[in-house]
From TrEMBL, chain A:
One of its GO terms (molecular function) is oxidoreductase activity, acting on the aldehyde or oxo group of donors. It holds the Pfam family Fer2. The keyword Iron applies. It comes from the Bacteria. The keyword Repeat does not apply. InterPro entries: 2Fe-2S-bd, 2Fe-2S-bd_dom_sf, 2Fe-2S_ferredoxin-like_sf, 2Fe-2S_ferredoxin-type, 2Fe2S_fd_BS, Aldehyde_Oxdr_Iron-Sulfur, Beta-grasp_dom_sf. Residues 20-96 form the 2Fe-2S ferredoxin-type domain. This is 2Fe-2S iron-sulfur cluster-binding protein.
UniProtKB/TrEMBL annotation, chain B:
Pfam families: CO_deh_flav_C, FAD_binding_5. Keywords: FAD, Flavoprotein. It comes from Hymenobacter cyanobacteriorum. It comes from the Bacteria. PROSITE patterns: FAD_PCMH. This is Xanthine dehydrogenase family protein subunit M. Gene3D superfamilies: 3.30.465.10, CO dehydrogenase flavoprotein, C-terminal domain (3.30.390.50), Uridine Diphospho-n-acetylenolpyruvylglucosamine Reductase, domain 2 (3.30.43.10). SMART domains: CO_deh_flav_C.
Length: 197, 341
């Protein structure tokens, strides 16, 4: 009986790359995570820090549900690796306001009934906060254009627009962008009164 | 995503060395396209070299009056930079026509040149694609090719380059600065991206390991008469079916200088210098623009579902040139035109 020997097909199995530490400042608190390099910022927030307010929608940067603020600027956390944000200051929906003290945008979304199912709302609010930080949009057309990275499957766009416009048009409601320099502490959310209806 | 290691580069030379030291390594700037391709398993690098700590994110005026965009400057910072808004409004408009605010906050200027086609078949691992897997065949030819190219295509690939920003950069005669294992060099923008030919897997003329470090804009920005017209399936946050970057230097109605480049129609931003030459010395009239549009599309080839692009591109060229001439018309078409002088 002849013996058949065969070389392994294809590449030999590769060991997984090791995890590595990454330091993130999230909602004013320093965290060091030991994670695999392919962990997205979104998965780091949801799976490692239990900050599940940030939502996973499409996971491809097309819907905006995962929007968070990095150094004051809105980004899609699904298209960014956590290891790329060493020492970044990240703000999620959990850091914008509290149950007792909603942020002006959070209050405006309630006052204007700016959602139905609510799944896109954390991303919408973080994106709107980024829009306000940028200071570019003034008119309704400009707000519509600069909110186009956030999709609402329920179609609550007209109420989202009116909520954002209310905060934009009332300078007293705008949270000042502190510049987000490295080492900045948690932004001061306190002095803003919710809108009187 | 497959398993990979990640290092954060702190100097260009170190990044280039790190790239050479690994098989299948990739540079990562903002990552907005690369990470998506990795999730789809279209890109499978085993090592990523982070670039965000290299610096190279500044925008500065050059001694010759031009402007240097650092390769790591974000698309958003570039579009809203005071010098870009004032002196290169065509570039401002093109950048703001692309992607979403979130993506523009992450995506870098160098990365914008390196983004890959959005041809459906390139992304669909279940189908042949010569760009993704050389020699496997082109599914778009004879397939669903509504988004595909009509100019400079080959029998192996009809994919388009998806960028808006690059269409303006092509029109503005940008120079690409790169650094690699053999030192630094510059590449003229028109020579940076390739036509597919027999090697559609190659998008550009970078040598292995080369890294884009900056983009140099010449002093001339055509800030008085310009238009970036983008036609797409929805009014925001969609890739161009056809886009036109038009820039004119006018003396009354006499055209002294002209630039014309198209997006969404070819494997690279499609700049037509012969068409530009046809414009110079002519009066800026609809007749002139129609003649030029016919010339740009004279060798266009439709593939069925995308044949509509030929007529669409002709009309887009005429409209963009008209908008560039009568700047008042542009005011109605873009929510942000008012921010320009």
């Amino acid at each position: 009986m002849s013996q058949v020997t065969q070389a392994p097909l294809g590449r030999p199995p590769v060991a997984l790359a090791p995890t590595q530490p990454v330091s993130l400042n999230i909602n004013g608190e320093a965290h060091t995570l030991q994670i695999a390099p392919w962990t997205t910022l979104l998965d780091a927030l949801r799976e490692y820090l239990d900050l599940t307010g940030t939502k996973k929608g499409c996971d491809h940067g097309q819907c905006g549900a995962c929007t968070v603020l990095v150094d004051g600027k809105r980004v899609n956390s699904c298209l960014s690796l956590a290891v790329m944000h060493e020492d970044s200051h990240i703000q999620t929906i959990e850091g914008l306001g509290t149950e007792d003290k909603l942020s002006p945008l959070q209050q405006a979304f309630i006052d204007h009934d700016a959602f139905q199912c609510g799944y896109c709302t954390p991303g919408q609010i973080c994106s709107a906060q980024g829009l306000i930080n940028e200071g570019k949009a003034k008119t309704e057309a400009q707000v519509r254009e600069l909110m186009s990275g956030n999709v609402c499957r329920c179609g609550a766009y007209s109420n989202i627009l009116s909520a954002v416009m209310e905060v934009l048009n009332n300078e007293g409601l705008i949270i000042e962008d502190k510049g987000w320099s490295a080492g900045a502490t948690k932004p001061d959310m306190a002095p803003v009164e919710p809108p009187k209806k | 995503m497959n398993s990979f290691t990640f290092t954060q580069a702190t100097a260009v030379a170190g990044a280039v060395q790190d790239k050479a030291a690994h098989d299948d390594a990739a540079y990562i700037g903002g990552g907005t396209n690369l990470i998506d391709l990795m999730k789809e398993n279209v890109a499978r690098p085993t090592h990523l070299i982070g670039l965000k700590k290299l610096g190279l994110d500044t925008i500065e005026t050059l001694p010759d009056g031009g402007l240097r965009l650092g390769a790591l400057a974000t698309n958003a910072d570039t579009a809203w930079h005071p010098e870009v808004e004032k002196r290169y409004p065509l570039l401002n408009q093109a950048i703001l026509a692309g992607a979403s605010p979130q993506l523009r906050n992450m995506a870098t200027d160098g990365g914008n040149l390196m983004q890959r086609t959005r041809c459906y078949y390139f992304y669909d691992l279940a189908t042949p694609c010569n760009k993704r897997e050389p020699g496997s065949g082109c599914s778009a030819i004879g397939g669903y090719n509504r988004v595909c190219g009509i100019l400079g295509t080959s029998d192996q690939c009809i994919a388009t380059h998806p960028s808006d920003m690059c269409v303006a950069l092509a029109a503005l005669d940008t120079t690409v600065r790169v650094s690699g294992p053999n030192g630094e060099r510059t590449i003229k923008f028109e020579d940076f991206h390739r036509l597919p030919g027999d090697h559609p897997e190659r998008d550009n003329t970078l040598e292995p390991g080369e890294l884009i470090t900056g983009l140099d804009l010449p002093a001339k920005g055509f800030e008085k008469n310009f238009s970036y017209l983008k036609l797409r399936d929805r009014t925001s946050y969609a890739f161009a079916l056809v886009s036109v970057a038009a820039a004119l230097e006018l003396e009354g109605t006499l055209i002294k200088d002209a630039r014309l480049a198209l997006g969404g129609v070819a494997h690279k931003p499609w700049r037509d210098k012969e068409a530009e030459a046809m414009l110079v010395g002519q009066r800026a009239t609809a007749d002139t623009f129609r003649r030029v549009a016919a010339k740009v599309l004279e060798n266009a080839k439709g593939y069925g579902a995308n044949t509509f692009k030929i007529e669409l591109a002709k009309r887009a060229i005429v409209r963009a040139l008209k908008q560039a001439t009568e700047m008042n018309q542009v005011l109605d078409t873009n929510a942000f035109q008012n921010s320009n002088p």
